[in-house]
């Protein structure tokens, strides 16, 4: 609702202007019915003439010298003040005649003139309540009468003296300053002035200004010296008069007409700007109150407007003074400005000047015009609420730089030429700056840093070139406040309570439109504004030149229309800002829209040199939101804008006319325009674009209109070429988001229509896809010279070759996919790898491309993309140690995640041998830090010979996760359980229910757990072994059921020990007992021989003496009785044995014919120690291991499930998901809603929300029931547990606006192989829930789903316990690089990859495993009916309904919340606005702030952006652990708490024993 004052101002405007009065009408305008006093001002008043003028000058001089000297002695200046001898009116008036003449004396009589000034200044003290004693009594008695006479006499002092030197003029200036200062004090002081006195004072000030300023400016004349001071005093006193005695209409008309005669003076526009901006600042407070953004000006300027001035006076003064200087566009016409009496007199008197417009002082008109337009634009910005940092040097102060072209642009550059007069300002520039505007002290105290005083507004072209290089720009996040929109950069936000666009255009539109049309077809610089004629603002076409109105003045070449380009650019920028300030649902008059589009059409024209002029740059910089605001008919500008962007974006070295324009900011604004047009071709298809009416359009009427779909190739090439040459991180970020949108939108459109555009590109030509291909000659943009970063130049073909063959096919989804993959991968490897934010955005784009469903996806392109990703990881890992940092490792982790997405989406890639080898080599590099097959020339290293030195723990974890996903999930996801779970849904309770021993009834969880044997292998994998066969198996085979709980989930296996395969085990014999074959009883014939111990011929060998050296046995026995006795005993034993063997042999012979007993197999065993068999067969029980090796660390560790807390910790492990989980809360905000309760109630009924909102919800994920869902549900109390569904009658949910998915019974769910996302539409506020208050006793339930569990990386009772054996004291942050020089030889706990030889090492992890805050990333998606409501969105109030159970102890601040605002445009497209906290990592892609996208890709892109937001927050968190690491740490924690300290023999004994029953 508009304030009463605003209505009053509007009424004043309508009354004053009448029915469309022209503001440039010099014939009186709104004062046309009032008399003008200009004649009196120009010719002078009779009161200023002295009677001494009638006499000879010498006589008058003698009288004045004697009288004035005597009067001056009584003033008390050189001696004590005395009472004036003048006692009667006649005496006083006679003396005043003398003083009046003295003020007109030549300045050679400086002392006399000075005494006259002193006398009058002292006498004016009579206006005060206590006048000085030197004031004559008649003056004291009637001060106003004499004050009027004194003021009129002062006019003589200011009249310029001809032929005076510079020193004399300076003396005159000093005296004039004294008079002006005195009059200022009188006007501002406590003096009581009558109305006649006020009018006399104001007329005097107008008169002296006219006397000094009306003549053409001459270097170092009195007018040049005093112009700023006299103008400042005039306007300052005028404002005081507006408060105390409002000037009459004749005075206002006289002021206006006089100002028109002073327009060739730069000081007029500067002082006018100064006063108007000060009044505007006051007016904004009056109209909009203290909540409206303050127009910050200097303290001295703020005091220009009296504090006691009434609101009515402020509004009247502001509007009247605004119209004082006439139409600023007349400043572009020197013939109009010079059509004054003073210029005509000068031309007549001069022999060198033929026409008044040839005067040299008019060379400053371009600069004056620029200042005037800057002042108007500054007021426009003030009403929009975006002028927080104004630079008064730009529109109010003549600085030294402005004289040398510092005013900006072409005009400023050329105005500083040798043909421009160089004024010598008095007072000096430094004093003037401090005196008039006090920028340095006041700006600082008002909160404006001096460094920020660069432009009138930060969004416009700055006239002063920046101190740094033109390409320098702020970092992507350096200028952003705590809660901001990154895409808007440093542009200040518009004020929520700003006036409507129509209101601002009513005030300033005609001036700005006329300024925007200068130099266009039909506009003449020689065309003066005819008296009494008013140009209708509704005119669409610029009126052509009229032969009746055309003047014959010849404009000097130095004042050509191109010199006014800077002012025109400023006007176009202001118009763009006005129209881009349109609110949702606001209507702008069609006449304004038509004229604006016509102005834009002219401003966007490209010159022959294809140079970006100031007007074009200003349009692009200030119209970033042009296509996002539902402006009626704005699509007619699309071809012109695209042509303009083709000048700016594809050029690496952009040609700019003005160096004051930041190339980075210009490209950024151009990218904003580009990403808001990308979806138009597919959205509007074959809709023709009508060309704006113009002279050329009338001639070429037979030309077929362009359709939107024909613009798509130009847009796509523009996007690709811009990304190819872009170097700024934030600009690249935006372009990558736009590229992802283009691919997704094209793919979705083709999928919906089931019609794919013909794509004749074969695999041979894919290397040529970076060529710029256009649909016509206007978009044939050359490839930049930066192709060296994209590989060999032979990959790039010329534009002409590609244009003919593939031009019309290059905008299909497949072609875009190929081009995007090729370009992004090349730039990622070549020039983006050192910038984290760009790398993350590029990897997010590649991940999005992998998920995009394109029917013609080429396997070769996918393979090439995977190869590039692997090369990127290899390069990053092989960078030298000084380059390793947290950011580097974050990029490597993100690359592994992207690689996971590609392999999951395209599992056929792993069927390729080369691709599989490349991927596994990169995994090996991530896990171990080196490759077995290293760089060329290096020897091959076997894996068991390498030392494990990964780049960092995070990199190793990411590689480990990729390896597991390759082995377990690629090609198998989603499993039979669905995407909701990677783990088996079976646990101990459910398995026990299926055992033969289960008798029915409830099974306590603790009892079920104790039926299992628990072991931990490799300190990372928990094995739960059940030695009972399940009920569905009837075979008496050794059976073991294993629940494997590892870092990547829970898996259930049932194994049987079989000696035959299953297909043979089922075949049974027909005979149950076939028996054995009968033995053959035939005796084997035995040979009869006598064994001999020596050869037969041994006796025939003759003996020798050596044979006799061995004594015989008898001889030995005879010699030794002991030996004899032993021999006797041995003989007895031999004899006994011989007898036994003979008897046995005889018995066998007698029983040879008897039947031999059959051997039968033992009975089948039904009891097996299957746990021992399983562990033994799988190598966990190694009896040959080194005795010195600790078996509990490298082999098997037994756990005691009967210990208290084991069951609870086991369930908490089961409820730790192996995937990341994110929650997105979706809200619907109707227009104007601000309270949380109203917002939450919108989704309760279908009629309260847009049908498109329900369509959007259905595209986010799959509806799932919370009770039967086994994945993430948005809250830990119901997540990762599937309960037995209970048949409860469900209420009908047909009439809901999304409330069904509030998390109570249903949610929207989406998951891939590594991530889970729950989308919840809250419907009610909840109190703060502390997750630490959950009672662990609730876990002793027999239901697998159990109660709530708080996800944390380790058990809360572990404290600072070491989580692996022999944990060292060094605790470095896991995110930084490992110390490679001190790295131990191996890293345990990484699954199958960590089984290399060598002693185990201590993982270099921090032992402080508290839950990091970033695991609870708050992401809100807000659907807005009105975009302006995002400023009032109650984030703090709605936080209570976004609890997930993962809250950090410190809570979440509203500034930490990531918000995606979606606003539905009338065209059916959606506008995106992002808001989030500032961090080192920017907001995620593919959504970009300001992007406009179609509804068919809305859900997909919002989901991808939410996923990437969560991933980026986790990457940025120093203490974050991936899910599989948290599970591994939980297993290690359970080992420490529940291990059985058994030696190797005790462990084997334990395995041979039976489990508890």
Helix content: 40-55%
Shape: elongated
Q: How many beta-strand segments?
A: 16
| Major β-sheet annotation | 9 strands, mixed
Structural class determined from secondary elements: mainly alpha
How large is the share of residues in beta strands? 5-15%
Oligomeric status: single chain
User: What is the mean pLDDT?
Assistant: 74
The DSSP helix count reads: 54
Low-confidence stretches: 1-27, 388-393, 398-488, 529-552, 756-808, 1187-1194, 1286-1292, 1328-1414
Protein model, in words:
The protein contains 54 helices and 16 strands. It is elongated and about 190 Å long. It is mainly alpha-helical. The model is unreliable at 1-27, 388-393, 398-488, 529-552, 756-808, 1187-1194, 1286-1292 and 1328-1414 (pLDDT under 50). A hairpin with a 3-residue loop joins strand 4 (1013-1017) and strand 5 (1021-1026).
Short précis:
With 1557 residues, the protein is mainly alpha-helical.
Write the layout of secondary structure elements.
Elements: H1 4-17, H2 38-43, H3 57-72, H4 89-103, H5 110-123, H6 137-141, H7 143-153, H8 155-158, H9 166-188, H10 195-213, H11 222-244, H12 249-261, H13 266-288, H14 299-302, H15 311-322, H16 334-337, H17 341-349, H18 365-384, H19 392-395, H20 400-403, H21 409-415, H22 429-437, H23 439-445, E1 483-484, H24 501-516, H25 565-579, H26 590-603, H27 614-622, H28 638-648, H29 663-675, H30 680-684, E2 688-689, H31 695-699, E3 706-707, H32 712-725, H33 729-753, H34 799-806, H35 813-830, H36 836-851, H37 859-877, H38 886-905, H39 913-928, H40 953-968, H41 988-993, H42 1005-1010, E4 1013-1017, E5 1021-1026, E6 1039-1046, E7 1049-1056, H43 1062-1065, H44 1113-1119, H45 1121-1150, H46 1170-1177, H47 1191-1194, E8 1196-1199, H48 1206-1214, E9 1220-1229, H49 1236-1241, H50 1251-1260, E10 1262-1265, E11 1306-1311, E12 1315-1320, E13 1419-1424, H51 1435-1438, E14 1458-1464, E15 1470-1477, E16 1492-1493, H52 1498-1516, H53 1523-1538, H54 1544-1552
Parallel strand pairs: 9-12, 9-13, 13-14
Antiparallel strand pairs: 1-15, 2-3, 4-5, 4-8, 5-6, 6-7, 10-11, 11-12, 14-15, 15-16
């Amino acid at each position: 609702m508009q304030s009463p004052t605003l209505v009053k101002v509007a009424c004043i405007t309508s009354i004053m202007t009448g029915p469309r009065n022209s503001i440039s009408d010099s014939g009186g305008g709104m004062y046309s019915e009032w008399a003008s006093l200009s004649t009196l001002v120009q010719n002078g008043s009779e009161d200023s003439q002295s009677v001494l003028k009638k006499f000879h000058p010498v006589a008058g001089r003698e009288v004045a010298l004697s009288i004035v000297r005597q009067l001056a002695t009584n003033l008390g200046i050189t001696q004590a003040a005395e009472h004036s001898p003048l006692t009667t009116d006649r005496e006083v008036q006679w003396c005043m005649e003398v003083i009046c003449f003295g003020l007109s004396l030549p300045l050679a009589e400086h002392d006399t003139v000075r005494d006259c000034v002193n006398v009058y200044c002292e006498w004016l003290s009579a206006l005060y309540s206590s006048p000085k004693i030197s004031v004559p009594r008649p003056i004291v008695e009637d001060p106003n009468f004499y004050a009027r006479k004194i003021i009129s006499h002062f006019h003589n002092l200011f009249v310029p003296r001809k032929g005076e030197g510079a020193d004399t003029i300076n003396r005159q200036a000093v005296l004039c300053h004294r008079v002006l200062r005195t009059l200022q004090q009188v006007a501002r002081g406590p003096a009581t002035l009558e109305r006649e006195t006020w009018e006399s004072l104001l007329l005097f000030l107008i008169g002296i200004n006219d006397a000094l300023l009306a003549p053409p400016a001459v270097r170092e004349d009195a007018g040049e010296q005093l112009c700023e001071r006299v103008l400042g005093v005039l306007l300052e006193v005028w404002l005081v008069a507006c408060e105390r005695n409002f000037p009459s209409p004749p005075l206002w008309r006289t002021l206006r007409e006089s100002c028109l005669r002073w327009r060739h003076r730069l000081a007029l526009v500067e002082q006018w700007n100064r006063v108007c901006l000060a009044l505007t600042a006051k007016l904004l407070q009056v109209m909009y109150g203290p909540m409206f953004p303050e127009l910050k000006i200097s303290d001295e300027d703020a005091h220009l407007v009296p504090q006691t001035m009434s609101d009515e006076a402020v509004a009247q003064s502001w509007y009247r003074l605004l119209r004082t200087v006439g139409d600023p566009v007349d400043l572009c016409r020197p013939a109009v400005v010079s059509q004054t009496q003073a210029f005509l007199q000068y031309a007549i008197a001069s022999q060198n000047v033929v026409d008044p417009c040839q005067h040299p002082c008019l060379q400053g008109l371009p600069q004056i015009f620029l200042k005037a337009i800057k002042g108007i634009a500054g007021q426009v910005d003030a009403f929009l609420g975006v002028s927080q940092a104004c630079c008064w040097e730009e529109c109010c102060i003549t600085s030294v730089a402005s004289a040398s072209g510092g005013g900006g642009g072409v005009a400023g550059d050329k105005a500083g030429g040798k043909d421009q007069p160089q004024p010598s300002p008095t007072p000096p520039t430094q004093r003037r700056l401090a005196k008039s505007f006090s920028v340095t002290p006041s700006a600082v105290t008002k909160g404006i840093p001096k460094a920020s005083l660069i432009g009138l507004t930060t969004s416009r072209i700055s006239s002063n070139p920046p101190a740094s290089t033109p390409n320098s720009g702020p970092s992507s996040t350096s200028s952003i406040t705590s809660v901001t929109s990154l895409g808007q950069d440093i542009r200040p936000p518009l004020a929520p309570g700003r006036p409507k666009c129509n209101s601002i255009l009513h005030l300033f539109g005609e001036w700005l439109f006329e300024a925007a049309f200068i130099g266009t077809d039909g506009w003449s610089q020689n065309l003066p504004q005819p008296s009494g004629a008013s140009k209708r603002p509704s005119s669409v076409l610029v009126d052509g030149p009229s032969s009746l109105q055309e003047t014959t003045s010849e404009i000097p070449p130095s004042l050509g229309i191109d010199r006014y380009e800077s002012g025109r650019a400023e006007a176009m920028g202001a118009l763009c800002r006005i129209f881009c300030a349109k609110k949702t649902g606001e209507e702008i008059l069609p006449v304004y829209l038509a004229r604006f589009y016509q102005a834009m059409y002219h401003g966007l024209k490209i010159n022959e040199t294809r140079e970006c002029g100031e007007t074009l740059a200003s349009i692009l910089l200030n119209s970033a939101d042009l296509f996002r605001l539902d402006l009626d008919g704005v699509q007619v500008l699309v071809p012109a804008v695209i042509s303009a962007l083709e000048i700016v974006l594809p050029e690496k070295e952009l040609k700019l006319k003005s160096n004051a324009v930041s190339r980075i900011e210009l490209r950024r604004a151009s990218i904003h325009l580009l990403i808001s047009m990308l979806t138009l071709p597919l959205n509007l298809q074959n809709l023709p674009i009508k060309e704006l009416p113009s002279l050329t359009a009338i001639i070429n009427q037979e030309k077929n209109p362009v359709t939107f779909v024909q613009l798509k190739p130009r847009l796509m090439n523009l996007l690709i070429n811009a990304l190819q040459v872009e170097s700024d991180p934030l600009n690249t970020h935006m372009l990558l988001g736009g590229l992802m949108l283009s691919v997704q939108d094209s793919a979705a459109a083709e999928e919906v229509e089931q019609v794919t555009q013909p794509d004749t590109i074969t695999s041979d030509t894919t290397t040529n896809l970076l060529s710029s291909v256009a649909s016509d000659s206007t978009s044939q943009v050359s490839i930049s010279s930066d192709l060296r970063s994209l590989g060999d130049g032979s990959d790039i073909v010329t534009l002409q070759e590609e244009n003919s063959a593939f031009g019309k096919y290059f905008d299909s989804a497949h072609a875009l996919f190929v081009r995007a993959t090729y370009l992004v991968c090349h730039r990622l490897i070549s020039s983006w790898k050192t910038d984290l934010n760009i790398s993350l955005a590029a990897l997010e784009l590649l991940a999005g491309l992998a998920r995009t469903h394109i029917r013609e996806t080429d396997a070769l392109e996918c393979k090439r993309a995977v190869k590039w990703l692997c090369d990127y990881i290899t390069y990053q890992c092989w960078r030298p140690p000084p380059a390793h940092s947290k950011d580097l490792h974050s990029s490597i982790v993100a690359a592994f995640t992207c690689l996971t997405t590609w392999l999951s989406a395209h599992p056929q890639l792993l069927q390729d041998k080369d691709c599989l080898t490349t991927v596994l080599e990169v995994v090996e590099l991530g896990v171990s830090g080196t490759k077995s097959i290293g760089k060329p020339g290096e020897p091959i290293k076997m894996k068991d010979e390498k030392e494990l030195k990964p780049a960092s723990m995070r990199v190793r974890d990411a590689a480990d996760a990729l390896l597991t996903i390759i082995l377990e999930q690629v090609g198998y996801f989603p499993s039979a359980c669905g995407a909701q779970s990677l783990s088996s849904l079976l646990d101990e309770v459910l398995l026990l229910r299926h055992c033969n021993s289960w008798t029915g009834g409830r099974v306590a969880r603790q009892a079920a757990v104790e039926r299992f044997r628990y072991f931990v292998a490799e300190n990372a994998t928990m094995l739960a072994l059940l030695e009972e066969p399940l009920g569905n198996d009837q075979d008496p085979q050794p059976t073991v059921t294993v629940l494997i709980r590892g870092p990547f989930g829970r898996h259930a296996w049932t194994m049987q020990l079989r000696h035959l395969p299953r297909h043979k085990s089922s075949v049974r014999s027909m005979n149950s007992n076939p028996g054995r074959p009968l033995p053959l009883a035939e005796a084997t014939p035995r040979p009869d021989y006598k064994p001999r111990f020596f050869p037969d011929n041994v006796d025939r060998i003759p003996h020798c003496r050596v044979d006799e050296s061995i004594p015989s046995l008898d001889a030995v026995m005879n010699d030794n009785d002991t030996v004899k006795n032993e021999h006797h005993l041995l003989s007895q034993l031999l004899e006994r044995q011989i007898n036994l063997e003979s008897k046995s042999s005889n018995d066998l012979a007698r029983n040879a014919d008897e039947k031999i007993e059959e051997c039968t197999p033992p009975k089948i065993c039904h009891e097996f120690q299957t746990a021992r068999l399983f562990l033994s067969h799988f190598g966990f029980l190694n009896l040959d291991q080194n005795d010195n090796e600790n078996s509990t660390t490298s082999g098997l560790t037994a756990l005691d499930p009967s210990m208290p807390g084991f069951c609870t910790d086991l369930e908490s492990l089961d409820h730790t998901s192996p995937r990341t989980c994110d929650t997105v809360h979706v809200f619907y905000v109707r227009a104007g809603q601000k309270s949380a309760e109203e917002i939450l109630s919108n989704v309760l009924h279908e009629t309260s929300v847009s049908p498109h909102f329900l369509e959007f919800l259905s595209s986010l994920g799959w509806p799932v029931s919370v009770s039967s869902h086994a994945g993430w549900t948005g809250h830990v109390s119901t997540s990762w547990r599937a309960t037995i569904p209970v048949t409860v009658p469900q209420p009908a949910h047909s009439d809901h606006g999304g409330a069904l998915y509030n998390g109570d019974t249903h949610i929207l769910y989406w998951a891939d192989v590594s991530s889970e996302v729950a989308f919840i539409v809250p419907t009610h506020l909840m109190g703060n829930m502390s997750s630490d208050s959950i009672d662990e006793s609730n876990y002793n339930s027999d239901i697998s789903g159990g109660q709530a569990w708080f996800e944390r990386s380790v058990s809360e009772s572990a404290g600072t316990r070491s989580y692996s054996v022999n944990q060292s004291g060094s605790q470095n942050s896991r995110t930084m690089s490992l110390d490679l020089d001190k790295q131990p030889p191996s890293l345990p706990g990484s699954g199958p990859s960590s089984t290399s030889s060598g002693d185990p090492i201590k993982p270099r992890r921090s032992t402080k495993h508290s839950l990091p805050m970033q695991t609870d990333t708050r992401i809100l998606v807000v659907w807005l009916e009105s975009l302006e409501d995002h400023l009032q969105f109650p984030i703090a109030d709605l936080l209570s309904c976004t609890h997930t159970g993962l809250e950090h102890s410190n809570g979440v601040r509203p500034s930490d919340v990531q918000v995606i605002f979606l606003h539905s445009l009338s065209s059916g497209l959606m506008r995106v606005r992002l808001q989030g906290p500032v961090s080192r990592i920017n907001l995620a892609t593919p959504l970009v702030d300001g992007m406009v996208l179609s509804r068919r890709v809305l859900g997909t892109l919002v989901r991808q952006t939410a996923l990437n937001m969560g991933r980026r927050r986790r990457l940025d968190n120093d203490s974050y652990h991936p899910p599989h690491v948290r599970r591994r740490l939980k297993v290690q924690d359970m080992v420490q708490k529940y291990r059985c300290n058994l030696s190797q023999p005790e462990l084997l004994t334990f395995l041979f024993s039976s489990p508890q029953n």
